[in-house]
Amino acid sequence: MNYSETLEYLFSQLPMYQRQGAPAFKKDLTNTLALCELLGNPQTKFKSIHIAGTNGKGSVSHMLASVFQEAGYKVGLYTSPHLTDFRERIKINGQMISEQSVIDFVADYKADFERIKPSFFEMTVALAFDQFVKNEVDIAIIETGLGGRLDSTNVISPELSIITNIGYDHQQFLGETLPEIAGEKAGIIKPNVPVIIGEFQQEVAEVFESKAKQTKSTLRFANREWETRKQILEDDKLLLHLRHYDGIELEIESQLSGPHQAKNLITSLEAIRTLSDAGWKLTREHFKSGIKSVVTNTGLKGRWQVLGRNPLIIADTGHNREGLEPNIKRLLSNRKPEQLHFVWGMVNDKDVSKTLQMVPLESSYYFCKPDVPRGLEVAILVQTATDLGLKHISFPSIAEALTAAKGLAKRDDIIYVGGSTFVVAEVV
After folding, report:
1. Separation of alpha carbons 236 and 301, rounded Å
2. 120 — phi, psi (to 5°)?
3. Alpha-carbon torsion 224, 297, 306, 165, what sign?
4. What's the 3-state SS for 153-172?
5. 169: Cβ–Cβ under 8 A, 6 or more apart, which residues?
6. Which fold has domain 3-298?
7. CB–CB of 356/384 below 8 Å?
8. What's the DSSP call for residue 211?
9. Residues 6+ apart with CB under 8 A from 377
10. Chain mean position to CA 392
């Protein structure tokens, strides 16, 4: 099989959560452990950092990878989902693995896949671990896919566990309450491995503190360690002046300028400080240069990404309340509601009504369906928007919706492309 045929096999033969939803979710680690055993247990042969959380884990993963690269380490990076190329999920020093490595992996183990019957995600985790060993990485930054306790990545013994924050997402798998969801995320905390929690949230703090006590893990809440003295947000740049409780002050510039990136940056900073204390050769200068070059170093896309100007076009993968609310607030801080144009699509396991109640009533909406099986039918968006009194037009594709928005937006307006990772994937 060539590369396109290999991908077609993966997408069609292995259940894929991003496309199919609940049927692809596996409730234990049996398949992952079987694949690891097949590969000689690669998860035991590299050092790693494990990252979970409702929002921000992808950004934190890329920030940390960039800092390690600046410090001269060879860095593996595993994240999900991908936007335009499957290989975005597995990178070595910011470069996607080769097409041939994917072809060879599937060819070598296709018969085993048919015996073990892994999900797409389980197979991808196994491929990542195999590549990290073959490329002899110094450190692998590994993002969970969904949850933590039963996530396929949770077979590693990391140097550090990180949980960014807890919000409502994937309740059908993780629990209906924030403490229940936190309990699933806390499953990545390992015995005697330090843990960083990005945000102190009163409702779930005790969950993490209790788990850390059980595992004898040191625990710190990043946003209780650092104070933001000054913050400047520009379209494609973030400037932060931070002060640690012990008196250290840092001025940092980031290529990631979304309204939530200050929190992610502070989480990453506290992680680097913890790893530095543990013996990793990571300095403040490495951190500053890594954050300043995070997009350049890692190729991260879809996080408050500026696609055009006059009108300003921004794409962002935020797709739940905690991800969307800060984005909408920032849009409204720069423009009047009637100057905003939303190219919008969703997937079918999200609460459409709750989501659309968050957006400005006076703005213009261009509804479309992302080109994946889980894509929400436009008719459902249209009906909900009509009930809420939103001004909208519907389109058969995301490309046509964006073209229409460009045609109707004035020079000083903003076009925001979002609602789902898969909408953003079609424009970046």
Report:
1. 12
2. -55, -45
3. negative
4. CCCCCCCEEEECCCCCCCHH
5. 54, 181, 320, 322
6. UDP-N-acetylmuramoyl-L-alanine:D-glutamate ligase (3.40.1190)
7. yes
8. H
9. 348, 369
10. 29
Which two three-digit tokens encode residue 278? 């543990």
CA within 13 Å, CB half, 315:
19
Q: pLDDT of 262-303, one tens digit each? A: 999 999 999 999 999 999 999 999 999 999 999 999 999 999
Side chain identity, residue 29? L
CA atoms within 13 A on the CB side of 188: 32
Contact 367, 378 (CB under 8 A): yes
Those residues whose C-beta lies under 8 Å from the C-beta of residue 403, and which sit 6 or more positions away, are none
Each residue's pLDDT tens digit, 71-116: 999 999 999 989 999 999 999 999 999 999 999 999 999 999 999 9
Distance separating alpha carbons of residues 181 and 321, to the nearest angstrom:
15
What type of residue is 125?
A: V
Helix (H) or strand (E) holding 57: helix 57-70
Residue type, 307: L
Which CATH fold would you assign to the domain 305-425?
Protein-Tyrosine Phosphatase; Chain A (3.90.190)
The phi, psi pair for 40, rounded to 5°, reads 85, 25
* Domain limits, the chain: 3-298, 305-425
